Structures are given as C-alpha cells and as structure tokens.
Amino acid sequence: MKRSIQMLAIVFLLMLPLSCKAQKLGQIECSRQEGYVYLYSSMVTMEISTTLKCGQRVTILDRSDDVIHIRTDAGEDGFVPLSNVGFFKPGTAPKASAPVATTRELTHYDKPARLAATSQPSAVAHEIVLKNQTAVHLKLGHELSSATAHVGEEVNFEVAQDVVVGGLLLVAKGAPAVGAVTEAEPRKRGKAGKINVSIASVQLANGEKLALRSFGIEQPADQKSGMSIPLMHGKDVTLAKDTEMTAYVDGDQHLKAASFAAAPSSTQSASQ
C-alpha cells in the first residue's frame, strides 16, 4: 500500500511539467473600454515598451502573482497583468475577442503633438448653429426716395457688424445683402410719400447665401416705428445712404464649421 502511494506521487510529479507545458499559449484580452493592452518592459519601473492588440496570440513564459511574463510572435518580451491574458491549450483556436469600437490608438507615452492632433474633433463632421432671430446689422447701399422708387426694385445693403458664433466669423462686416422695395408712394396733394423695404438674404463668410427677414428701419425717436417712414405732410420720403436696418436670421441654420475661419479676437460673439 505504501509502495502504491509512492508510485502515485512519482507519476503526479512526472505529469506536472506536462500540465504546465500545456498552458504556455494565451491571447490578449481587453476590457470593453479599451482597444489595446500595454506591454511593460519592467513591472518595477512600469516602463511601457509597446501595445498589444486584443486577441493577439502570445507565449506564456512565467507567472508571478497577478503578472504574466509573455513573448509575442514578433519576439517582443515583457509583462502584462493577469487579467489581460486568456489561456488556451495547444491545438485549440484562440477565442475571438469582441470588436472594440475605437477610432484611434492613444498611449500616454505618445508625443504631445500627436495627442493634440488626435484629440481634436473632426472638423468635417462638426456643425455650428446660427440660431433663429440672430440679429444682422446692415446699412443701406444707396439713397432711396418715395418719389422715384418702385415696388419690386432691388435694394442693396452691406453688413455693418461682424456676426460671430463659437469663435467663428459667419458673416463679415462689409458683406453684401439684398432686399427689395415692398411699398413706394410719392407725395400726393398734401399727403406725405411712403417707402417700405425688406431684406431677403446676406452673404455668409463662406460665400453661401443666408435667408433673412426684417421688421423695421431704425429711425430717429421722433418718428413712428415701422418699415415705412411718413414725414411732414406733402413731402416725399428719402432714405439716405447708410441708413441702418436690422434683419434677423430666418430659422436655425446648421452650418459646417470647417468652411469658416476664426474671428478676430476683438470681435464680439453674436447673441445666442
């Protein structure tokens, strides 16, 4: 009986190296939030030599507590946490890792320039919103008179103040805007003339047109508000060149940020 026990112990000891050899292959396993695992050249200094891909096959060289000493098929030698290694026996196919959604691989030992470049949002996909009723301040491009103006006549304006949103110049000072005469009545037998204009669109800084709507011309305090300007009885109405008028963005406008340049630092942002 004693001899049998001794023989079983010897057989167990002989089989132990074989069982250890059977666990010499493994693969890299990543958490759901990561697309790679660090390979450390030293667990003392925590110096990183490279990164390993999820599902990458490795050879297990040794194990110490929660650290595994491995070697890659490319000959890279180092250490990884036990939690990042899955074991499988020779002859079995490595278990495929679930695909990890990642747009780029970043490591803390990357160059600062690379980190800065890759951390910026995609300019192509980024949009900026020019909100409904954002004010656009304009100046009349030429003189208009109720004596000579005609309904439907095109009226030219120019932008009097930059429109800036999110640090981007969307409408530049001096940009052209277009409107039309909507009402024109010359003076008649003691009745003052009338003139009314509206603004249809303005040119954005990227060359595209932006739809506008207008409500009234800025007038002196002693005159009535409204788009038409009645003056003293029996006189025609004259709108001088550079008469100021405020128009407003017609509905929220979703614009591509990449098509606009940064505004000068002294420019004030448009009201949101």
Structure description:
The chain has helices at about 1-20, 110-120; strands at about 25-30, 35-40, 45-55, 55-65, 65-70, 75-80, 85-90, 125-130, 135-140, 145, 155-160, 165, 170, 175-185, 195-205, 210-215, 240, 245-250, 255. About 20% of the residues are buried. The N and C termini lie far apart (about 90 Å). The strands form 6 sheets. It has a 6-stranded antiparallel beta barrel with strand order 9-11-14-15-16-18. Strands 6-5-4-1-7 form a 5-stranded antiparallel beta sheet, with no helix packed on it. By secondary structure, it is mainly β. Helix content is about 10%, strand content about 40%. The longest helix has 20 residues, at about 1-20. It has 2 domains: about 15-120, SH3 type barrels (Roll); about 125-260, Lipocalin (Beta Barrel), CATH 2.40.128.260. The chain is built from 2 helices and 19 strands. Mean pLDDT is about 75; it is low at about 15-25, about 95-125 and about 220-230.
Q: Identify low-pLDDT runs.
A: 15-23, 96-125, 218-232
- Strands ordered across the widest β-sheet: 9-11-14-15-16-18
Strand content: 35-45%
In angstroms, what separates the terminal alpha carbons? 92 Å
Oligomer: single chain
What's the Cα radius of gyration? 38 Å
Largest sheet: 6 strands, antiparallel, barrel
Number of structural domains:
2
Secondary-structure element order, as H and E?
A: HEEEEEEEHEEEEEEEEEEEE
Morphology call: rod-shaped
The helix/strand class is mainly beta
Q: Work out the helix count.
A: 2
CATH superfamily of the largest domain: Type IV secretion system, VirB10/TraB/TrbI
Q: Tell me the helix content.
A: under 10%
Q: Kindly state the mean pLDDT as a whole number?
A: 75
* CATH fold-level assignment of the largest domain: Lipocalin
CATH class of the largest domain: Mainly Beta
Count the E strands: 19
CATH architecture title of the largest domain: Beta Barrel
